[in-house]
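Quick one, T. Sequence first:
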Amino acid sequence: MSTINICHGRYSLIASNVGDYISGYIAINDEGGHALCHQEFYEQDLEGVISHVIDPVTGGNQIIASDLRELLIRAGFRQRH
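Structure tokens:
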């Protein structure tokens, strides 16, 4: 089971594998680290998390999405084939 709890700039991401799904949430934080808003998710694969959750929350910022994808992969999350 893979789990991750990270902060990347103003974004916080908590995720874990739940069976064949990835569940968790991403939050946008203020300067003090308090969540301004958050989006919960329950996706089938890593690409679903990136395209349905991270991209919309970050406004399509590909640099942040790419960084978070790499951190998820290093934490053991894998794309289903």
